[in-house]
């Protein structure tokens, strides 16, 4: 009986050591899981920051393009308005000259 008793003790000790190893592996797996989650959070934060930076850069670029386009359009409008003003001045000058001529002709009785 001693032989079977010692086999049982060896088996129990082996199972006890196996249980300790399993507990150790479980603890290690939990630690690694926490590290992986922390790393995933860090990477997600980095990706979020990069995305925000890229979006900000893109919006600034689009804004600058819109400003340049608006300035170009404004320049064209100003040029068009200046041409229209010149045309109006010519018409006013012509009308004034015509009115003066008509007035002079009326006064002179022609």
Kindly describe this structure:
- By secondary structure, the chain is mostly helical.
- 97% of the residues lie in helices and 0% in strands.
- The chain has 1 helix and no strands.
- The chain has one helix at residues 2-108.
- The chain is rod-shaped, with a radius of gyration of 47 Å.
- The termini are far apart.
- The model has no long low-confidence stretch (mean pLDDT 93).
Summarize this structure as a short list of keywords or feature phrases.
1 helix, 97% helix, 110 residues, mainly alpha
* Content-based structural category: mainly alpha
What is the count of helical runs? 1
What share of the residues lie within helices? over 70%
Biggest sheet statistics: none
| Mean pLDDT value | 93
| Strands, total number | 0
- Poorly predicted tracts of residues: none
Distance between the termini: 156 Å
What integer value in Å does the Rg equal? 47 Å
């Amino acid at each position: 009986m001693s032989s079977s008793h010692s086999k049982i003790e060896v088996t129990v000790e082996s199972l006890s050591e196996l249980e300790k190893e399993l507990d150790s592996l479980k603890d290690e797996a939990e630690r690694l899981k926490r590290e992986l989650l922390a790393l995933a959070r860090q990477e997600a934060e980095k990706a979020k920051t990069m995305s925000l930076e890229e979006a900000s850069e893109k919006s600034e670029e689009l804004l600058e393009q819109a400003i340049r386009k608006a300035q170009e359009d404004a320049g064209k409008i100003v040029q068009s308005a200046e041409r229209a003003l010149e045309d109006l001045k010519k018409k006013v000058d012509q009308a004034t000259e015509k009115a003066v001529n008509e007035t002079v002709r009326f006064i002179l009785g022609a």
